[in-house]
Structures are given as structure tokens and as C-alpha cells.
Amino acid sequence: MNPTRFNWFNATSLALGFGFLYLPILILIIFSFNDSKLVTVWGGFSTRWYVALFQDEAFMEAAWVTLRVALVSATFAAILGTMAAMVLIRAKRFPGRMLFSGMIYSPLVMPEVITGLSLLLLFVAIGLDRGYWTITLAHTTFAMCYVAVVVSSRLLSFDMSLEEAALDLGSTRLNTFFQVTLPIILPAIIAGWLLAFTLSLDDLVIASFTSGPGSTTLPMKIYSQVRLGVNPQINALSTILITLVAIGVVITSLLGKRQAEKEGKQ
Predict the structure, then answer these.
(1) Are 119 and 210 in contact (CB under 8 A)?
(2) Contact 187/263 with Cβ under 8 angstroms?
(3) How many CB atoms lie under 10 A from the CB of residue 248?
(4) Nearest in space to 69 (alpha carbons), one of 258, 261, 210, 180
(5) Nearest to 103 by CA among 52, 141, 154
(6) pLDDT at residue 104, as a whole number
(7) Residue ranges of domains in the chain
(8) pTM score
(9) pLDDT at 264
């Protein structure tokens, strides 16, 4: 019997798995168009909660803060993470390499509560008022580690002969990096940026420790609303986020497929 044969057991398992993962999301999307205030009782089709959401200044302010933090922290994380990856892969031996490597990878396995509390104590110790910039610094701190891992994996398979050829032809190391190295590792940097952006959008624990007055993020706002009861506006907001993520995934997949086809022709 062929172990890879598609049978009813495999089909049932696949259907149950996809149903468990995506059925709650589908129900959430359907009830975001519910006219009733009760999120579990269908009262007819309506877009009233989308209108109410965009008219809610508190939600809009939280969304704007979250977007700004995600954009800035992901950019800083991409730059710092790429630099850290270059040091880890290219500089094989230097004093403190073990410590530097441990500092880069430790946030990946450290509980977010510990990371958030540590950053809170740091900001209090240096007298930095908690707000937009403390959240941005905190998100940059843990997101750059993920960028470093993604870029490091690309640098491990990098063909060093390309850089050597550029140097032999008279190019400086700086020009070689920007004209040879950077274009090749750019897809990994973009992937790391997208990962850092997503992690920042999703973060609740670290932002709760490092936020201050006027710097409430969207996950914090949603969590505070859910504790008082599920608001239909949350269904509408979640549907918008799901749509944006789906569009981003589709665009990324198309760009990746086009890049693969271009490399295949070359």
C-alpha cells in the first residue's frame, strides 16, 4: 500500500484540521456584518459596526499608534538585525563573540513577561518617560533578533566569490556591500522586516509594560474592551486586519514567485 495515497482518512483529517484553524475566523468575519449588538445572535446583514469603528476616536488613535510603532521599530530592527547578522556570520572570531551571540538569541526564548519587565526597569532607571518611544525601543529590541536569524540564514549560503570578484575589479568594500551583497540578501531583509512588523502589530505583553499615557496600542485596546465584553466593533476590526494580512500574503507570494521565475530564466 502506498503510504502517500490520498484516502478518506487523510481527507477527513485535513478537513478537520482546516476547520479547526479557519472556521472561527470565518464565523468572526460573518458576524462582523451582523446588525445585532449581540455577537452570537444574527440580526441581519449590516455594515453599521464598520461605520461605528471608524467613528470611534479611541480605536483610531490606538490603530495609528500601533502602525507608527510597527513601521519605525521594524525599520530599526531590519537595520540593526542585518548588522548583527553580518557580524555573526562574517566575523568568526572576536573577543566577546559568545556573549554577543547569546545577547542576540536570548530574546527569542525568553518569556515576554521577563523582557517587558526588564525593559520597564531599564526605562525607570534611566528616567525615560514611558510612551511612544519606549514602546518603539522595546519592539526594536526583540524584533531585531528575528531579523538577525533570517538574514543569517541567507548569509550562510552566500557565495563569497561574488564579493571577491568585485574587490578584484577595484570596488571598495562599501560599494561592494551596496552593489553586490545588499541586492542578494535584500529578500531576506524584507522578510525580516515583515516579520518584525507583524510581531510589533501583535505584541501585547511588552507594550503593556512599556506604554504610558496617550500611547495605547491596538492589542491593548482590544484586550481592555474584551475584558468588559465582546464588542461587535472588535469583529469588524479583526476582519479588516485579516483582510490586510491576506492581501499582504498574496502580494508577497506573487513577488516571490516572480523573483523565482526571473532567477530561473537567468
Answers:
(1) yes
(2) no
(3) 13
(4) 210
(5) 141
(6) 84
(7) 63-232
(8) 0.82
(9) 64
Q: Are 143 and 193 in contact (CB under 8 A)?
A: no
Report how far apart the first and last C-alpha atoms of the chain are (Å, whole number). 42
**Residue 32: closest CA among 198, 242, 225, 249:** 242
> With helix as H, strand as E and coil as C, how does 14-58 read?
HHHHHHHHHHHHHHHHHHCCECCCCCCCCCCECCHHHHHHHHCHH
Cell numbers for 174, please give them.
562599501
Question: Which grid coordinates are listed for 25?
Answer: 475566523
For 112, the enclosing helix (H) or strand (E) is helix 112-125
Torsion of CA 144, 149, 151, 155, to 10 degrees: 140
Residue 1 confidence (pLDDT): 45
Q: How far is the C-alpha of 249 from the C-alpha of 253, rounded, in Å? A: 6
Nearest to 191 by CA among 158, 137, 140, 154: 154
CATH number for region 63-232: 1.10.3720.10
Q: 45 pairs with which residues across the strands? A: 34
Q: Which residues contact 111 (CB under 8 A, 6 or more apart)?
A: none
Q: Tell me: the pLDDT tens digits for 93-123? A: 778 778 888 888 888 888 889 999 999 999 9
> Helix 48-55 vs helix 232-265: angle between axes, to the nearest 10 degrees?
90
Dist. CA 77–CA 147, nearest whole Å: 7
Q: Which residues of the chain have pLDDT under 50?
A: 1
Q: Which residues make Cβ contacts (< 8 Å) with residue 163, sequence separation at least 6?
A: 176, 180, 181
Rounded-to-integer distance, Cα 136 and Cα 74, Å = 9
pLDDT tens across 206-248, in order? 999 998 887 888 888 888 887 777 778 888 888 888 888 788 7
Positive or negative, the Cα torsion across 127, 130, 133, 137?
positive
Residue whose cell numbers read 547569546: 102
